[in-house]
Amino acid sequence: MVKTAPGVLPALRVAAPPPPRARRGLTIALFLLPAVVLFALLVLAPILLAFYAGFFKWNGMGGLPQDFVGLDNYLRLFASDVFAGDLRNMGFLVLASLAGQLPLSLGIALLLNQRLRGRAGYRLLFFAPYVLSEAVTAVLFSMILAPDERGLANAILGAFGLSSTWFADTSTVMPALFLVMTWKYFGFHALLYLAGRQGIPKELTEAAQIDGGTPWQVFRHVTLPLLGPTIRISVFLSVIGTVQLFDLVWIITGGGPSHASETMAVTMMEFGFKRLQVGYASAISVVMFVLSLVFALWYQRFVLRRDLEGATVNR
């Protein structure tokens, strides 16, 4: 016990508060910790496991893989006709989306920007398909585009003496899938373009019209350049989404007929969960990841560079 003189209190040592910058860093770290832990467990760990398992022959059971095969899974993948077909299907859907889906979305967005009666209803109608889940969309179009007379599309075409096999034929399955993709996603891209169009000051288009510009000239020289950042983001999302396309194909066709509609994600699912060749499926997932990453880095470096530089604020 510390003895002190009467009426004199012992000196208390009070810890000095941490400096403001240290407190701020500690607060940020505490708030970020749960998100970082979840990201590490649910994103980083599966990615690392996929890279690791891609070098092994593994059925996904019995702990970590042990049967090391080196690059055999990747050599088998690149020699596979099915994987080559996956790449062709991906290329077809990417090109079709860039040439068909996105221009359609842009045209609808420009129309919805006009003063139309019931414009809010049209916007809701066009965006509604995107709200539906992929599973609901797939089941819906499986019934609409059924290859016999039970399908609504063939029932309507039958009135004109026409019909189609849709998803049941190797020559029509990919265009039919693209039709479903367009119906599902065009509303999302149209909403992006509409937001970008409404961000363009009216004074610019009005000045171009006063100078004698035709509607096409105003669109070509004013609207389209100012929509450039939005279009570039839309293209990026469309390509990445196509590379990872799975839900619609898996439910509607399962990759058939004869692998004609198979994508890399469907092939990965087939080998990983149905054939229990998890090592080979992991190699497919790694290739998908690398393709997406390389495209994202290239796109950011060469296409989005001007947009990112313009958004940077020097402090």
Account of the protein in words:
With 315 residues, this protein is mainly α. The radius of gyration is 28 Å and the shape is globular. The protein has a two-stranded antiparallel ribbon. The chain contains 14 helices and two strands. The model has no long low-confidence stretch (mean pLDDT 88).
* Shape descriptor: globular
Give the strand line-up of the largest sheet.
Answer: 1-2
Structural class: mainly alpha
**Low-confidence parts lasting 5 or more residues at pLDDT below 50?**
none
Number of strands: 2
**What radius of gyration results from the CA coordinates?**
28 Å
Average of pLDDT: 88
**What is the terminal separation in angstroms?**
56 Å
What's the quick description here?
This protein is mostly helical and 315 residues long. The chain has 14 helices and two strands.
Topology:
Layout: H1 20-53, E1 56-57, E2 67-68, H2 72-78, H3 81-112, H4 119-131, H5 134-144, H6 152-158, H7 173-198, H8 202-210, H9 215-226, H10 228-243, H11 247-252, H12 264-274, H13 278-302, H14 305-311
Antiparallel strand pairs: 1-2
Helix pairs in contact: 1-13, 2-13, 3-7, 3-10, 4-7, 7-10, 8-9, 12-13
